[in-house]
Amino acid sequence: MRSFYHPDQALHAPQQFMRVGRLAAPTDIPARTQALLASLDRLGLVPEVPADHGREPAAAVHPAHYMDFLESAFRRWQDLPGHGPEVLPNTFPQLSGTGRRPPCPTDHLIAQAGYYLGDLAVPVGEFTWVSALRSTHAATDAALAVIGGDRAAYALCRPSGHHARADRASGFCYLNNAAIAAERLRSRFARVAVLDIDAHHGDGTQSIFYDRADVLTVSVHVDPDAYYPFFTGRPDERGQGSGEGFNLNLPIPPGAGDQDFLAAITCGLDAVRDFGAEVLTLALGFDSHAEDPLSLLTVTTAAFGQAGRAVARAGIPVTIIQEGGYQTEVIGDCLEAFLTNLGP
Question: Which of 35, 142, 257, 337 has a CA 20 to 30 Å removed from the CA of 322?
Fold first, then answer.
């Protein structure tokens, strides 16, 4: 199996995020990449440095005005009197709907921060843009490997992407790597499925494909009545317009363990089969693990091995996109269990 990772992805080093009313120490730390790289090394997988694709893959998902903001925000932030260490919003517009918005109506940076950053978990620092962009390159080259005939390829993406909507960052996510990989796979395959098994609902991915029938989106996640992102991820969200019936949410209750987690994954893979998907993008997060600092579940490392076997049994090519997982002492073992059971 080929794997992809660029060292620039470790440069993003957020200093804070809002948690229960306090600016807390970050959980998406660069050491996450080292734990995952160590797992690949144990498996004898040497990650390839992805090609520099520039903005082109991301532009299939994200409009230029949004990427312009991400690329320029930190530099512009330095010109603000009394600025903090990172770009964070202090105002949010009232928004509705799931479609693409026009550019922010003002070029004032404070306004743009509130327009393009959806919460206080996406600080923009000096290297956020380059790390996020390199992450899209890893996802793209993994998709290209599958297009080229590989049965599976893994992209070690950091920062994560599944909460990023077309023109809004949130939940540690800036550019949507899974959606970008799915779009690249669509250049070769007529029917693409995205299965997200991160603990959090893949709200950004759902939003991007919500009105499309060519990409099935399935998300296994903690019930949003009790868990971020709270406002999406319920079973009655089925898609709209041409996409009606092509979005499936499979929430599981807080406190659930391996049995519920794996049953939901099996249900999601059944939907992928019924859709007739020719290829799968798997958004793989480990924040369901019982030891994860953000977890409300009791999933074990062994369950990720069983998830790998379930994906292998689906019998279709898969592009694996790394999402969350913040307990550095367990995420490498989770990845190793998953990839070992997925097979070559």
Answer: 257
- Using CA atoms of 115, 119, 122, 126 in order, give the dihedral in degrees to the nearest 10: 50
Best CA proximity match to 261, nearest among 296, 312, 230, 234: 296
pLDDT at 96: 53
Catalytic residue among 6, 12, 162, 163: 163
Work out whether strand 318-322 and strand 279-284 pair parallel, antiparallel, or are unpaired: parallel
Residue 44 burial by Cβ neighbours in a 10 Å radius (0-12, 13-18, 19+): exposed
Are 144 and 185 spatial neighbours (Cβ–Cβ below 8 Å)?
no
Residue in 189, 222, 219 with CA at minimum distance from that of residue 204 = 219
Q: Is 284 helix (H, G, I), strand (E, B) or coil?
A: strand
Would you call 170 helix, strand, or coil by DSSP?
Answer: strand
pLDDT digits (tens, 9 = 90+) for 81-119: 999 999 999 988 876 555 678 999 999 999 999 999 999
Mean pLDDT calculated for residue range 215-241: 96
- Report the alpha-carbon distance of residue 242 to residue 45 in Å, rounded: 41
User: If you count them, how many residues does the chain have?
Assistant: 344
Structural contact between residues 171 and 228, judged by C-beta atoms closer than 8 angstroms: yes
163: annotated active-site residue: yes
User: Is the preceding peptide bond at 229 cis, omega within 30 degrees of 0?
Assistant: yes
Cα 228–chain centre separation: 14
Strands 318-322 and 17-19: unpaired
Residue of 38, 27, 11, 220 lying closest to 121 (CA atoms): 27
